[in-house]
Each structure stands twice: as structure tokens, then as C-alpha cells.
Amino acid sequence: MCDFADDCGDGSDEGKNCNSQYKTCSPQEFTCQNFKCIRKQYRCDGEDDCGDHSDEVDCKKENNTCPEGKFTCNNGQCIDSQLVCNKVPDCSDESDEPLHCNVDECAKVEIHRCGHKCVDTLTGYYCDCNHGYKLLEDGKACADIDECIETPGVCSQHCSNTPGGFYCKCDERYYERQNDEHTCKRKDATEPWLIFSNKYYVRNMSVDGRQYNLIHQDLMNVVAIDFDMKEEEMYFCDVTAKTIFKSKFGAIVDDVKIEKVPVIKHDSHGLEGIAIDWVGRKLYWLDRHSKNLDVSELDGTKRKTLKSGVVDPRAIVVHPGIGYLYFTSWHLQAYIAKMGMDGSNFTRILTWEDDIAWPNALTIDYFTDRIYWADAHLDYIAFADLEGRHRHVVLSGNKVPHVFALSIFDDMLYWTDWNMKAIIRANKFTGQNFTVIRNTTHRPYDVHISHPLRQVPYNNPCGQTNGGCTHLCLLAPPLESTYLNVEGYIEEGAPSYKCACPNQFYLARDMKTCIANCTSGQHRCGGADEKCIPWFWKCDGEPDCKDKSDEPESCPARHCRAGTFQCGNGNCTPSTTICDGTDDCGDNSDEQNCDLPCPVSDFKCRSSGRCILDSWKCDGDADCKDGSDEDPEICHKRSCDPDTEFSCKNGRCIPKLWMCDFDNDCGDDSDEPAYMCRQRNCTTGWSRCPGQSNYRCIPKWLFCDGKDDCRDNSDELPENCPKCNAETDFKCNNNRCIPKQWMCDFADDCGDGSDESDAQCKG
């Protein structure tokens, strides 16, 4: 039993009954239908290695063609052409002597019924099509080939399909079509520069890697950058500093540092991607901690949350030409989403069902209207149109082992790779001309090409009067319901705009004026940075308002570090401990004023009075110490998203993938019905845990990662883990395999610290 052989004859001794005993196949192996693991190179080799023939199913066999002057029999045998139709069967299958020998079927249309051409052969005929057409499945009719979709790299930029052919077009404002009628060449002579970051510095570099300059150093963890060509300013996120900075372009000269100015420095504990709207003059960013997508003016004022509940966000890009932005989430239900730059029309254009697992990188080709992304788990770079259609893989496998960020310019892609510790480029359609531009000491993070054509001048619908809006004027999708033609390119319709208000403000009936809605538990900033801030930010030694009205001269003398709470007894405590239900000060002064009302966008914890983001309410995690944000009495009123969430019996909403995961996420066990879970199949790309009686499904890439994802540690047992490659991999103490170049790089890649141990890194 469970030996991969059907000994019973009906399969009852194998298959699902043995799930707990079969080991999970490694990425280097093929999983047979009987759950046996074989080497990938054994698939489609003509031999039944699985024992159930599943390794020989759906194998495309190359057509056997015989040399010139020879006839190909139906069974692949080759005989001399002169032996065909000689009334003697020379092919072992007698296919050289059909009943219709020496008959010209092409002479009569009623016989061949070919749409375009009929080609007579010695033993019959076949239909063929004119150039630019393909034969349909009936073997007779012909259909036009859409080269623009089926051969994406046929044109550098825009492609128009025509009957039997196609026509390439270039954006004539900036490019000229070359004599080959396919390639677009830039008219300007401005050299593009590549800007990239790592934890400690930001550098710029010529695209051939020959010129290499330092812009900023002594940074802590710069994961994302973007730039504004109009003002020649660069914006970057420092995760450790919890701040978005901006600075002028340029390299450090004579050790004179370029000043960096904080733009966003509050409530930004998990900064990820950033994007500059160079037309509407706005800053967009993602935050992993708050799970928010926010927008503000370029100076950080008038901050507004556009979308909440974005779990594990990563990359974000904007397209001001159509009023949309795109961003990624690498949560268990990973996706690439599209949303209006005003927060409208949120749509997942690609999901985990489209082989999206860890979408790290994102960029837009504004001249072809295609979106490019890279998956750091499935190891590929691909593109699609702006609706997620007509997907095409550019590169996959060991050339892209862990892409972190992408950029594009002309016909080349540029990206950073953690495994290779390098900055690389290749053709944006084919992946050809693969070149390592520069190797780096530390893992490179974000990368951008700096050139005016990466920020082409679209019309700004907000105009010179800010659209009449008193606060934010945000670009929005076109008012027309359709703005892309059938080829996926912008045809008609320009982006519109919408007036919006900062957090804690609301829009008046005129849809242009914002009115403050600060509570008694907040201080209202004045001037250009009109906003509401928590009461405990006042007199904390750090100006949070641009007009500094939160730090008047009447504030008591301070000795605590700026940004912390100074207790009544003189002790200091982080502001995050205020109203958490615990006397952190020792005199309970951090638990006073907790009965003040929370902002309208927040939820107030029942016992402590702490204010938390409203998006954290009923999300399956108890953020209030008393669990009041997950109270069934509150949560049952919320309607679950039928596409992505499971509705618990107690009213709580949890991600669908949490159902049957061996955890009581609902709190009433309604997500763990054993009779259903044992019969439930795992999602594509996921595997059932090897442990006996464990029905939990986890992504295949969580196996052997040093963490107990199965809850019984069966995904970390040596017998269920692939063997490391002795030449390229280091085996961690927890059985995880990591690239050798990750050793001794001051990052705990193993998860147990064994790749950074003194035994490995000293001597």
C-alpha cells in the first residue's frame, strides 16, 4: 500500500488515501498523478517512469520529417518517394498505398474545400494558407494571424494588425521608425541614467555601467525610490527611519553631502513602494503595517488613505496618461491590482490563479501601454496589457532567481536581483542580450531609469486652478467607460479629476470644498498643512504641523526624546503605549485622556480607549488587547467579499485561503469542518502537508523555509525537504537551502542564523 503501484487494480491502495505518507516533490522534480516524484528531465522521454504513464501525457512530439527525396509514412518510417503508389506496400503501415493514389484532389473545390490553397501530394492533399494567415483546426479554413498579440516583439512600440499582416508605428513626437519598419529610435541625445538603492546608499550609474556615482550614503534601509524630473528631485523610503525623504539629483562632490528632507515621517512604520505622479504632482505610497495605500501632495501635506486592507503590499506604479495606478500584494492570495488614481475602480487584473506568487517588481512601458512584473518565487519576468490580458513571459529560470525591482527604457529592461547581487538588463520582449551591468557588494533594492521620456508630459486635468478643489485634486480614470482600443492602446478619452480631502476631513456638497472634522482628542494644524493629529503629538518635542502650532512656546520643558510621550512623573515611554490598557508610565498618565473620541476613520477599543485603524476591525487579528475589534456583535454586520473571503458563522470575515488550514481563524471552528476539509483539494501551486491526518494546504515555496507552516512541523522534516545543490547552495541547520552568495551578508536568510554564524563567517 502507498508504494505508487496500483496493486488492487482499482487504485484504492494508492492516491488520496496516501496523501499523508507521500512526500512533497521538490521544485526539481515532476509530481506524477499517483504522487510519485521523478526527475523533471524524465518527463516526456518516451518511458513510463511514473508507473501510471502521467509523465508521458501532453507531450508534444516533433514531426518526423524525412530527407528530401524521401516519403514520410504515417508511422514515421522513411521510404524512397519513387516507391509511393507503386501498388506494393513499402511502409509497414501501408500508408504509401492509399485508395486514392494518383488522384489530384486539388482539381475540384468540392473535394478539397480549402479556404486558401490546396497542395496536392502523392497520396492525397493538404490545405495551406496565404502569408499572414493560419490554418484552423478543421484543416481547411484560414484565419488572420494577429501578429501584434501572437508575436509581441514584432514592433518596438505600437502595432496595428491588418489582414494578412501588420503595421508598426512609433510615437513620432519622440521616436523615428527605422528602415526595418519595426524598430523605433529615440530622437533626443539625452543620456539615460540608472538610479538604484540598497540598505545603505543610493547611487546613479550610466546604463552601460561605466560611470558610477554616489548620491546618498549612511542610510539605514532604502527599499524604494522614485523621482520627479520637473523639479529634479528624488524621493526614497527608508524603512528603518520610517520616513520618506526627498533630495535633489546629483552625485556627492568633494564629500559635500546632498541634503535630504523628510516628507512623510509619521504613521509610516512599514513603508514599501512609492510612486510619483509627475502630472498631478502627487506622492503615492504603500505601507505594510497600516495595510494602506496613501496619497499626499509632493511635500507630504494633505495626506489621504485611498485604499485600506492591502495586505503585504510591495510595488506601485502610476500611469497619469489614463488616470490609473497599479500595485502588487504578495499575501497568500497574491495579486496585481489596478485602481483609479482617485481610489476608484479597484480591480485585481492578475491573481494567484494566474501564477502570481511573489510579485516583487512592477513597471510600465508608457509607449506600448504594457505592464511588466517579476515574480521572486516563481522566478520569471513577464508582461501583459494594462488589463492583464495577452500575457507573455520574457525570462524565467536561473537567469532571474530573485528579482526585486524593474525599470524599462527604449527596448531594454533593467532589474536588480538579490541572488545574483547584480543589476542586469535584457531585451524587453525576448530576454536576449542578457547583460550583467554591475555586481554589487550588498543586495540591490529599487532601480529606476532617469530620463525625460520616463515621465512624458500628459495634460493635467486639474489645470492651473487645482480643479477648483480646496485641498487635493486627484487624477481619475476617463469619464468614458472605454478608453482602450481592441489592441490595448489608448485611443480616446483623457483622464478626468476628482476633488478629495485629507484624512479626518469631509467633502462638502459642492464636491470641491473640504471641511475639517477633528475630534476633541485631536489638534488641528493650520496653514498649508491643514490636518488633524492625535492630542499626544502636541508638545512631544517634534513639530508635526508645518505651522508648528503643535509645539507652542507654552509647552512644558522636555527631557524625553522627541516623538516620545513624557509622563507626568518625568518618565519617558513610546507613543505607541498610550491608551494600551497598561500603566507604562508608573503614574498612569499614559492611560489618561483615553475617553476622548477617536477620529472618524478609527475604531476605539472598548476597555483601553485606544484608537486603531478602522481597517483593522474584523480582519481576523485582535489589535485591541480586549479583542473588542473582533467582537462578533460588531463583525456580523460586515458583509464578506464573496471572491476573496469566507463568511464565518459568527459573522467574522477571513481570507478564503484560511479555510481548512488547521487553524481556528473564525473563533467558532466554522472554517475547519473536518468532513469537508479532508475532501478539499489544494489550490494550484499549493500542497497538502505531509503529516498524517493533517489536511492543511500551504504554498509549495513554504516547504523547508525554517518555519512550522503545517503546525505539526511536517513541512520541515528532512525527508520532506529537497536536497541542496552542493555546488550552488548552502544547507541551513533547519534544512532550508539558500544560495551560497547569501552567506555572511549580515542578513538572516536561513531564519535560524546558521548562514551568519561565526563558524561560517570567520576564518
Number of strands: 52
Mean pLDDT: 86
Query: Which residues form runs of ≥5 with pLDDT under 50?
Result: 482-490
Q: Quaternary state, please? A: single chain
Largest sheet geometry:
4 strands, antiparallel
Helical residue percent band: under 10%
Overall geometry comes to: globular
* Fourth CATH level, the homologous superfamily of the domain at 193-454: TolB, C-terminal domain
With strands numbered from the N-terminus, the spatial order across the biggest sheet is 15-14-13-36
Q: Assess the beta-strand content as a share of residues.
A: 25-35%
Write a concise synopsis of the structure shown.
The chain has 763 residues and is mainly beta.
Question: How are the elements arranged and paired?
Answer:
Blueprint: E1 29-31, E2 37-39, E3 70-72, E4 78-80, H1 109-112, E5 117-120, E6 125-128, E7 133-135, E8 142-144, H2 147-150, E9 158-162, E10 165-169, E11 175-177, E12 184-186, E13 193-197, E14 202-206, E15 212-216, E16 222-228, E17 233-238, E18 243-248, E19 261-264, E20 271-277, E21 282-287, E22 292-297, E23 304-308, E24 313-319, E25 324-329, E26 335-340, E27 347-351, E28 359-365, E29 370-375, E30 380-385, E31 392-396, E32 403-409, E33 412-417, E34 422-427, E35 435-439, E36 447-450, E37 472-476, E38 496-500, E39 505-507, E40 514-516, E41 522-524, E42 532-534, E43 565-566, E44 572-573, E45 602-604, E46 611-613, H3 632-635, E47 645-647, E48 653-655, H4 674-677, E49 686-688, E50 697-699, E51 729-731, E52 737-739, H5 758-761
Antiparallel strand pairs: 1-2, 3-4, 5-6, 7-8, 9-10, 11-12, 13-14, 13-36, 14-15, 16-17, 17-18, 18-19, 20-21, 21-22, 22-23, 24-25, 25-26, 26-27, 28-29, 29-30, 30-31, 32-33, 33-34, 34-35, 37-38, 39-40, 41-42, 43-44, 45-46, 47-48, 49-50, 51-52
